[in-house]
Input
Amino acid sequence: MDPFINDLVAYWPQILTGLQRTLMLMVIISVSGIAGGVCVFYLKLVKNKTLRKWTEAYISFFIGTPLLVHLFLMYYGLPQLGIRLSAFTVAVIGFTLNVSAYNARYLTTAYNGLDKSELEAAHAQGFTHFETFHLIILPQVMRLSVPSLTNQVIQNLKDTSVAFLIQYHDFFAQMQEIAATNFHFFKAYMTATLVYLTLVSVVVLVARRMERSIALPGFET
Amino acid sequence: MTFWDILIILARGAGYTILVTVASVSAGLAMGLFLAVLSTIRWKAVSFFLAAYNYVFRSVPALVLLFLVFFGLPGLGIRISPFVSIVLSLGLISGAYLAEIFRGAMAAVDQDEIVAAEASGMNSMQIFLYIMFPQMFRMSIPGMINEFTSVLKYTPFAYTVGIPEIMKEAMSLAVMTLRGLEIYLAVGIIYFIIYRLFVMLFMTFEKKFRIPGLAPE
Amino acid sequence: MALIEVRNLVKKFDDKAVLKGINIDLHQGNSKVLMGTSGCGKSTLLRCLNLLIQPTSGQIIFKGEDITRPGVDVRKVREDIGFVFQHFALYRHLTVEENVTLGLRKIKKMKSKEAVEKASHELNRVGMFEHRNKYPAQLSGGQKQRAAIVRALAMDPAVLFLDEPTSALDPQMSREVVTVINKLFLDNITMFCVTHDAFLAKYISDSIVFMDDGVIVAEDIAERLFYESVDPRIKQFFLSVIDHR
Output
């Protein structure tokens, strides 16, 4: 049998672990990224002008600089301050900060498209700033942002491969090892490519289904 | 070595970063345009090819593709230089996204104008050159700016294939001085500056070409 | 004592004075309509009364309490004032019924069942009960405005404010809404309405207040103001908005 296939079979447990670690990272940062995105988005709407400016600066910085820089900064930079974090921790925190910024930007774009008179009506009814946010703004903004948010989840899946550069032993890292041990570089990377393609397809299917189930008249995308 | 010194050393790599970015985006633009024009052909095989291309290059992680091209292809006897590898990888990927942007822009051009052009006797090439392209290009500018910044943020991967851009300089420096925090902070600042400068450049460029009534969508 | 008393209300935006000293009263059961040229300040006045806009100076006494003093409970004031907007402002992501019950549940703290009952009752009064599960995007302009009126009234406010309620509607739908508001008028609901629709004004007012350039010029019943006024500003205005056939 083909020596590469032999290797795949031999390394199967490790590959599986690698896949688990990839998916786990993706799920964690997708969830924390959305939660973080909502929080950052809220901060963009508070009354305090300074807070809003700093929030915008945070968003600008994380969107305007490469993800790898954020990860390296934490993984290779923090030790200079005596803080040594595991690759996993760095990945989770770094990705979350990054993804939250993007999600906040998508939510803000959707917010700018809202009918502002609805907000006036909410205030006229007597709702507080926070109540208006979670009863009127958030439900609409989340629905309008679903395509962007689901695209971000797909992006998260792809970006997990970057984590291997800070020694996070994910699926891609595992395929690297297999490639390096027996020089099956092409086959290994081709397999990796196909696996990612499949995973992305699954996420896309789930995302489309979800988009359909939450659609409301007036919110067709 | 002060923080300023660090910045200067890292800035040496900025030249390569910009070179890789510009080359990759150009490749992406060419590819995207090609695919967009291809999409006007109503041939089943072509549509299938486009759908497949789109699917593959929007699903594969950039890093994985880069490794496949640079480390994998030699296994098939195809050896590609580091520079071409990164430009090819990023070009193919951003080409997929730009193709979508261009297709959307093309669809937004008023069909009536095309018909009017046909009626006046222009052939397909002329219609594309004088009517379709100028409008489509202007409407794609925001998308192109977006894609440009995306590519810029993928260029750090170039260090893995040995290109001496900012990230590579940073890593050597970090190993030597152990001042990772300042170094990577400086890296972030430099990327941010490059990003901001390019956006400003594009905005001024866009202003020059703006036409009233033809707002980018 | 009047329900609302306004004393020397002034509102400046930067240096521009939009309201230049308004004095007006609204008694319970009474309905007044504010009319005037664009930019005369009528919408601004309405929004000052429920503190959507902060007055620059002057007093607003609502139910015996000065609501312009610092430390006033704005939410309590707004609970008691129903507001209907020109462009309906219904919450797009909620059904008609949910739009009405939201305030009842979250502000008046009613239980869901109670709120739904109250909403059903009020929607029935304006003929919107059959549309209660529809979303705003599925309604016509007239239906949207009727729903918006119910949303405001269901809170049992002391007074109803309406800002150009028919201006975004075509003539047929406008008539639909005028009929509804007229019913409210005949039921002695206390109302303050801003509009340039003279037809509406005639059917829902005890008196009409004419404003020009930030001040109140005159107050009188509809017929006299429309047809018998000698003030050139008023004559000019009504010449352009009334169908003098």
Remarks:
- The domain at 1-77+204-245 of chain C is CATH 3.40.50.300 (Rossmann fold).
